[in-house]
Amino acid sequence: MVMVKSSKDDQSSTDFVERRQHELEKYMNRLARHSQLIEDQDFKEFLEAEELPRAKNTSALSKGGLSRLAKGIGDAVSKITIKMVESDSWFEEKQNQIDVLDQQLIKLHTAAEVLVNLRKEVCLNTSAFAKSCSLLSNCEEHTSLSRALSQLAELEEKIEHVQQEQVLKDFYTLAETLKEYISLIGAVK
User: Fold this and answer.
1) Which structural domain, as residue segments, surrounds residue 40?
2) pTM for this predicted structure
3) How remote is the C-alpha of 94 from its chain's centroid?
4) pLDDT (tens digit, 9 = 90+) per residue, 52-80?
5) Cα–Cα distance between 62 and 106 in angstroms, integer?
6) Does residue 173 sit in the same domain as residue 119?
7) CA-CA distance, 118 to 9, in Å (whole number)?
């Protein structure tokens, strides 16, 4: 069971939970395909366990403590190393290409997230329109107009389901793939 603090913006917290769940599922699937872990009994027991054991001898590391440690290590390394200026035109060219690609992918990822959010909004509006048509068909006294409004409401509900599927495809296929590429480029940098 995952415990998540909920905030005033429930939609963003559910999006976060969905993203986190998707990332964890991808990681566990990739981990489970490892040749040695396929045969490991401890790993199988871990995956099949209903409840995980609590950690007893772990200590929390603070962000400030880690940053001070990293700064201290960086200062010590910079004191004992000699600064060398290297000039490699091929390396600089590739570095510039990677930087440009990173910026372009970040812009594309932002646009993909905007697209997903706009499609979610269209989906919600389509659902509201379908409900309005349904209510209107129930109130209409003219039977043929009532029937037409009812059919329109059913059609709009089907459209809403198709739009919802498209939102999920856009999110998991496009936005998440771009996010993975951005993190890979960050690792290359």
Assistant:
1) 18-49
2) 0.54
3) 29
4) 767 665 555 666 777 777 787 877 777 77
5) 29
6) yes
7) 17
